[in-house]
Known about the structure:
Blueprint: H1 11-31, E1 36-42, H2 52-68, E2 74-80, E3 87-92, H3 96-109, E4 116-121, H4 147-153, H5 158-194, H6 215-223, H7 226-238, H8 244-250, H9 252-266, H10 273-288, H11 297-321, H12 327-335, H13 339-345, H14 349-364, H15 369-383, H16 387-418, H17 423-439, H18 445-460
Antiparallel strand pairs: 1-3, 1-4, 2-3
Helix pairs in contact: 5-6, 5-7, 5-10, 5-18, 6-9, 7-10, 8-11, 9-10, 10-11, 10-18, 11-13, 14-15, 14-18, 15-16, 15-18, 16-17
Amino acid sequence: MYDFFNRPVTVPDMMDAREARFFLQQQLLREHPGSMLVCLGMNIAGPIKTTPAIERAFSWGRESILDICAPYPRLDMKEKHDHTGPEMMVCLKADAEEVKRRLCDLEDGTPLGRLLDVDIIRPDGSKVSRTEIGRDARKCLLCDNPAPVCARSRSHSVGDLFARAHQLIAEHFARQYAVTTAARAQQALLTEVAVSPKPGLVDRVDNGAHTDMDVFTFINSAAALGDYFRTCTETGLRFRGGNPADCFEALRTPGLLAEGAMYRATGGINTHKGAIFSLGIFCAALGMGFDGEASDPAAALLRCGEMTAPAMAAALEKVQSGDARSNGERLYKQQGLSGVRGEAAGGFASVRTIGLPMLQRARACKLSVNDSALCVLIALMAQVPDTNIHHRAGENGAKETQQKTSSLLARLEAQLDEGKVDCMWLHSELQQLNSWMKRLRISPGGCADLLAMTLLADYSSSGSV
């Protein structure tokens, strides 16, 4: 973005920057009588005052300050980016001491805030000091002593301070990525259950083939899983550069705890056990691929296969030679359906080759979020063997379900090719299919989880946090 990253500054450079800053402050105060200024820079030791990481931290600081100062009328704003470091000045109609207290909370109360250099200038040009509002001097980045004391005694090397600043930045954005990814996973679950009308599934207006749960059961369950998705992402972040299979092994205990949280939230009803497995692995895979700014969801889906393939192969081999302990294991022994284990081991190919391409096609026709997701669900139901359907309806019922959805998909794709989908027709067809599936108690729960995976992959494609 800028061509002056990592360019050392000289003493004359810093003197010139300080003089220019002073004159701009005076100009803004003259142009807006009675206003005060918020001036933002970065506390970076040494001759290098800006790098890509420092610019990201500055952008976070700028947005945080603008959010905190949103209640005050903003009269003007100036921003500068140079090798002497990024700067911002905001001219506000506000009480300078009040703003100083709020922004000291930002500096002192957040790890990355420790790198912000925020000055508050009164209308008369004087600076509001920390002592005037009863605040202690800021702490050193490397010890608990006051920063001015360490600076005067040169207790720490410039290199150590510079490295610590970048460590704080990296840790902040990793934490933020974990929080954002967890929120996206919850959003995917909540969007999936809200999409209507879904044949055989719980949605906003119908319980589908289920008599023990409704949309609120799913909301309660999704709300209980945020910490789990964050833990999965943080686990992936810890295993960056490591063995993906070891990362998957580290997810086992958090997964069991998440199932317990789900059952407590739903009164013992299994709403999201499959999603806990699938989305948890995906969150960890996204964490493993985080490069400090973003994580490629397509690569993360493939990484899910690297994480799980050895364990899934061993588990399926054990099922084949032993007794089936679950419906999924029984279907694997009888029909060779590997279910979610096979999906994971294959890097969730159904999401990569069916879900995401269909979502893009639906969006190209300008369909709503709801109807785009319905297109994805139809495509998945028509092409993916769903062990939940096989368990509830048997092999013949599963074939008939796939035939019905394949016929619907063919008609839908013809409309997508023409660039216009009749959504009233689509909803009517799905309502009829729902009535049939309800009578036979057929629920495509596996495809619902793959829809949530598709949505999470789509949300994650936005990149930076």
